[in-house]
Every structure is written in C-alpha cells, then in structure tokens.
Design a protein that fits this description.
The chain is 36% helix and 17% strand. The chain is of the alpha/beta class and 448 residues long. The chain folds into 2 domains: 172 residues, Aspartate Aminotransferase, domain 1 (Alpha-Beta Complex), CATH 3.90.1150; 259 residues, Aspartate Aminotransferase, domain 2, CATH 3.40.640. Helix 3 packs antiparallel against helix 10 and helix 7 packs parallel to helix 8. Bound molecules: ligand PLZ.
C-alpha cells in the first residue's frame, strides 16, 4: 500500500535554522502573553506557519518532526491533499446552514460511514457534534434517557473532556478540575486495569471483578445507566488494560441492562492498528464516541449507537448550531476515504513494528523506562525514578523539552505526568519516524 502524498511543497525532513523557539516565535509568545488567557497552556511555544505530512514548519523557517498529530488528530497527515480539496470544494458551495434548520447530504454520508465502520453489525444511528467532550456529554444524555437511570461509572485515570459533566467524568484534578467545581452528580469512579501498577499477575478478568464488585456494592446495577471507558486510556497515560478487562466489563453491562460506552475519541480511526481499539478484543459497545482523527484537523465529533437507543430520544433532544458543520463533514469523508484507500490501520501496525523494537532497546539500556506500551501508532514510555520506582514527572518534562529543542514534537501524558507518548501521523515516512525515535532515545539517555 502506498502512502498518500503529503501536501505539496513541504520537504519531509527535520531542519533547524534557529534555536527553538526562534526569534519570531519569541515575539509571538510575548503577544500571546498579553492577549491569550494564561489558563491555556502551550507544550512547545513554537508558532506554526505551515504543516504537511509529518512535519511542522515554524515562523522562523524551522522544520520539525511531528510525533503528536495535534493530539491524535492529523492521522491522515497535516493539510492532507484530499482533505484540503474536499474542504475547498465544500466551502465554495456553502459553509453552514445548521443541520437542524435545512439539512445537507455530507452529514448523512458521515453517519453512514460511522454505521459501517464502528464495531458491530447491528442497526445504528449517529449524531454529530463539535468536540469530543460534547459527544461524551451526549452519550450520557442518551444513556440516561434510554435506560431511565441516572448513575454513570468511569474509571481511574479517565479523560473525557473539560465541560462540566465531562470534568466530573475525568479523573485528574490537575490541571482539569482544580477549583472548577462543583461537578455534576451521579458519577462514580472505580479502579481500572493498569498492568504496570496492579498487583503482579492480576488478569484482566480479575481487574474487572475488582471494579464490578465496587459498582455492585456502591452504585447497584439497577441505578446505573452506563459505564464510560476509553479502550486504551489517552491523557491518563496510554494505559492498555490487561486482556479480558474490557470484555468482562462489557459482558456484565449486557447482563445488567447497563450501556457500555466506548470513548474512542483518541483511539479511533486507525490509530491503534484497527479502525477502533474495541475491535482488538471483539468488544461491541452500545454507544461509541469518536472525534479527533475523524475529520483530519477540522472540528467534528460523533456519537454512534444502537438504533433503538439513539432513536429513543424525543425529537429535538439532540443538536447544536454547528454540530456536523458541512465543511467538517466534507473533511471527514475525505479523511475516511484516505484511511480506507491507503490502509492506514495497516500503516499504524507498521509504525508499531518500527517503533516498538527501538523503544524496547532504549528500555533495556535505561532503568528509568519502567514500561514501553501501547498499540499501533499509540505508543508510550512510562518513566520512573529507578531506585524508588516512583513516577518521575521531572525527568519526563526534561525528555520532552530535549526532544522539542531538537525539533521533534512529542507529548507527555499520565495522571503523574510521567509518560512520553507518541502519536505520529499514520502517513509518516519510516525515515522520519526513525529519526524522531533516535532523537527521543538520545534525549532519554542524556536527561536526568
Ligand atoms: N475523550 C478519550 O482524548 C481529548 C485533550 C487535550 P475534545 N483529549 C485531548 C486537553 O488537554 O484538552 C479527549 C479524549 C478522550 C474526550 C476528549 C475530549 O475531546 O475534542 O478535546 O473535547
């Protein structure tokens, strides 16, 4: 399978012409401080002028390797030619009508694709939104409406968004919840499966039993509308649950009339080597939220679910001014076509095949690397202080900064901010990926 061509004109290489951030970026950072809320953080204060394929070109002329995809969004590449063409074509026809006022076909076509691509052969319906958080909120609305129950269960290290309800679903106080309460009620949190930190040998089924016994004792199935869960946890640390954890939870949900909601906003659309991460263990969610990579960089998110649940909602109960904007839908159709035509799930598996041995070799040399984990092109290193095994957020920040200074964009994550995560565009060339991994390896070996 050939990779799609990155956008014309941007050479796919790392090339630094100034220190990072360069003078022009520093000027803009000063303007930023005077105009943008300090509450909006920036990982790397390098201002971007253009981007294409797997590189970011900054305002000083530096070309950086992108191993973050704008947090798992530009999986088809940045400014992917097919997305750019579809957006241009749509934007010249019309930019907005509001689907709730006068509808248009691209919205339908996206919902048809979601019905085809998401796990399970059952009849499905979708609704489109602007952001992942909005999709998750609507999943809870539908689950409560369809079941007539109020309680929602989430797990440790969960991340589901920054709106009031999704803050309640999100685990970490810092930075997401600190002094932003009170939070929505009827949200209950149980332990997840975290193989590195669970008792040695704990199976997925045992971790699920630990969670389910708490749910049964402290919530009760008859009060519970849904369990909301990321099949591989994103912001919380790229935590891959032990095999059996997700199927056991899903099975219990099915037996108790509780809806299993998969939040695949970060894992979905080929990132983990399948269209959706749930497929890896054959789990079929009742409701699934998607976003990020669905539209190749335009804001779009979706809630897809069993037809009888999604259609149970009263007419007018779901919606929003911009949800399923026609330009974002055109971008989504082009992104999905690109993923299908170029087998980007296979591309994610090939990225794993290149990156995992390199990261494992690094771990073998460096006792601070407690674990290499992830699946497909969603890979991570958890860093610890080797003598105490305590999480090492300071080392993690140093490693990320060293990569950034060298022109490689990596992100961090984890409830303890001690995980380096890799989310390269799925169309990244093997050479660029290998160069990025070399820079990361050097940064880990020379930090601390
Ligand atoms: N669910 C699983 O990963 C967004 C958040 C970045 P929105 N993750 C990146 C930040 O610090 O705000 C995310 C996710 C999962 C929901 C969301 C929320 O998606 O599009 O950011 O609202």
């Amino acid at each position: 399978m050939t990779a799609p061509q990155p956008s014309a004109g941007l050479v796919q290489r790392r090339h630094l012409v100034t220190e990072l951030p360069g003078p022009r970026s520093r000027e803009l950072a000063a303007r930023r401080a005077a105009a943008v809320s300090a509450g909006v953080n920036v990982a790397l204060p390098v201002f971007i002028a253009a981007a294409g394929g797997g590189v970011l070109l900054d305002v000083d002329g530096n070309s950086l390797i992108d191993l973050g995809s704008g947090i798992a969004v530009t999986s088809v590449g940045n400014a992917a030619p097919a997305v750019v063409a579809a957006v241009q074509e749509q934007v010249e026809c019309f930019t907005h009508t509001c689907f709730m006022v006068t509808p248009y076909e691209p919205y339908l076509a996206v919902c048809e694709e979601l019905a085809r691509l998401t796990p399970g052969g059952h009849e499905k319906r979708s609704a489109l939104f602007n952001s992942g958080a909005e999709a998750v909120e609507n999943a809870v609305k539908v689950a409560r409406h369809a079941t007539g129950r109020a309680a929602v269960v989430v797990v440790d290290h969960a991340y589901h968004g920054r709106t009031n309800l999704t803050m309640a679903l999100t685990a970490a106080a810092m930075p997401y919840k600190h002094r932003f309460g009170p939070f929505a009620p009827e949200v209950y949190r149980v332990p997840t499966s975290y193989p590195l930190r669970d008792p040695p040998g704990m199976s997925g089924a045992q971790a699920a039993a630990r969670a389910l016994s708490l749910i049964e004792r402290q919530v009760g199935a008859e009060a519970l509308a849904c369990v909301v869960i990321e099949p591989i946890q994103g912001e919380g640390g790229f935590i891959v649950p032990a095999p059996g954890f997700l199927p056991t939870i899903a099975q219990w949900c099915a037996e108790h009339g509780v809806l299993f909601v998969a939040d695949e906003i970060q894992t979905g659309f080929c990132r983990t080597g399948d269209w959706f991460a749930c497929e890896h263990e054959g789990v079929i969610p009742d409701l699934i939220t998607t976003g990020k990579a669905i539209a190749g960089g335009l804001p779009l998110a979706a809630l897809t679910g069993r037809a009888e649940l999604m259609d149970a909602v009263h007419v007018g109960g779901l919606g929003g001014t911009y949800g399923g904007n026609p330009v974002a839908c055109a971008a989504a159709l082009a992104s999905i076509a690109t993923m299908r035509e170029h087998d980007l799930a296979g591309a994610a598996r090939r990225i794993e095949a290149i990156a995992t041995p390199a990261l494992a070799a690094l771990a073998a040399q460096c006792p601070a690397v407690a674990q290499v984990r992830g699946r497909g092109a969603m890979l991570a290193l958890e860093l610890i202080e080797p003598t105490t095994a305590a999480p090492d957020p300071a080392l993690t920040a140093q490693v990320a900064h060293a990569c950034h200074r060298a022109g490689v964009v990596v992100l961090t994550c984890g409830s303890d901010a001690n995980v380096i995560r890799l989310l390269p565009p799925l169309i990244i060339s093997p050479d660029l990926l290998t160069e990025g991994l070399d820079v990361l390896t050097h940064a880990v070996l020379h930090s601390g």
